[in-house]
Design a protein that fits this description.
This protein is an alpha+beta fold. The protein is built from 12 helices and 13 strands. Helices cover about 40% and strands about 25% of the residues.
């Protein structure tokens, strides 16, 4: 151990001993001999830190070293708050201060974006400062988030689609009972039913992909040849019929962009981006969809973007927007599950493409997607 890290038995507290481990007392009845503290701390499955009252690291066990991603010899003696300054505004910092100030034990769960992990944190007062145990509970939290996402979608997206289908069906029945029907009105109602059914299908397919990903099942794109420009016009037209408060327009430099991609997933991707643009933009604003052929050093791509003039994404949230279930800090009460952009990112990864987001809070967002052409693919325009 370095820097005097052979912490002695008498310097560690009883509360931590009950959790695995920082103190072992002799027991005649159980005939247990006190083992070296370092051996115990290195054998536990929790990440363990010992800090002084100012937050300097006194001890880092093997699990904590793995979690932090830095050799322990490089961080012993350094301030945890200087290593991770953003933690100063976290719940953890406030809880650690409470342990030191009030000499109380604390336990809480917190998401750590730098490690993309949910951790169960337990802090205990010690004569020199405090000890902290971290247990990775990401798998459990992800399961809870999936359950919540499914519940949210079932209670909102699917319910809304079902209500639209039922409402359209009731209108059709009333028109038939009233006598002669207007074929155009019937067609419009059936188109609404068709769009709602497609939306339900997309929501269900998104959830199936999500569950497969959480189970570690590799997704394989079901490729077929289609025209991306035609898909954009078709999807924009469908979403325009779903909103009277936004104007959706398509601007394209290419008459056609044909390639071998997964039609169902790309259609869902475009729909999710349009849905987000409508949801997070004020009424009366325009949403612009553009498309072009993008020539790069990496090859030719079919590129399209969705631009809105909505609330935008705070700069501090941008590094995390492709993480499943992550929602920007400024969305407030607006409904959402936090899986739209994460799902979009995975669909693009399946195709070997790119997705970029440029956003300014209070001004709007531009999401740009680039899909690689396979050899032999062509663009006309």
């Amino acid at each position: 151990m370095t820097n005097g890290t052979a912490l002695r038995l008498h310097s560690l507290h009883n509360g931590a001993a009950q959790r695995g481990a920082t103190t072992i007392q002799r027991s005649r009845d159980r005939r247990v001999t006190a083992a070296p503290v370092e051996e115990i701390l290195e054998s536990i499955t929790d990440a363990f830190l010992a800090l002084d009252a100012e937050g300097h690291l006194l001890y880092v066990n093997r699990q904590a070293e793995r979690l932090m991603g830095s050799p322990r010899d490089d961080v012993i003696g350094l301030s945890l708050w200087e290593l991770y300054p953003h933690l100063l505004s976290s719940r953890g910092y406030a809880e650690y201060q409470r342990v030191i100030r009030d000499k109380v034990e604390v336990e809480f769960e917190e998401y750590f974006p730098e490690w993309n992990a949910w951790l169960e944190v337990r802090g205990h007062p010690a004569p020199y400062g405090l000890t902290v145990y971290y247990r990775d509970v990401t798998r459990r939290k992800r399961s809870e988030e999936i359950h919540q996402a499914l519940t949210t979608l079932a209670s909102h997206d699917l319910r809304n689609a079902l209500m639209l289908i039922r409402g359209s069906a009731q209108l059709l029945i009333e028109q038939l009972h009233r006598g002669p029907v207007d074929p155009q009105r019937i067609e419009r109602q059936l188109q609404r039913v068709d769009r709602a059914a497609l939306r339900m299908s997309a929501v269900i397919d998104d959830q199936i992909d999500l569950m497969h990903l959480e189970r570690g099942v590799d997704l394989v794109p079901q490729r077929s040849r289609f025209d991306l420009v035609a898909l954009l016009y078709r999807t924009v037209d469908a979403y325009q019929h779903s909103t009277d408060s936004h104007e959706l327009v398509v601007e394209t430099e290419a008459d056609s962009l044909e390639g071998n991609w997964d039609l169902g997933r790309i259609e869902r991707l475009v729909g999710n981006l349009l849905s987000n643009a409508i949801k997070y933009s004020p009424e009366g604003t325009k949403i612009r969809v553009s498309a072009c052929r993008d020539h790069t050093a990496e090859g030719d791509f079919a590129a399209f973007s969705v631009e809105d003039h909505g609330m935008g994404i705070p700069a501090s949230d941008l590094p995390h927007i492709f993480q499943r279930f992550y929602r920007a800090s400024n969305v407030g009460p607006i409904h959402g599950s936090g899986i739209g952009l994460a799902g979009a990112h995975h669909i693009i990864e399946l195709h070997g493409g790119r997705i970029d987001v440029v956003s300014h809070e209070g001004k709007g967002t531009v999401v740009t997607v680039a899909l690689p052409f396979d050899p032999g693919d062509s663009a006309v325009g």
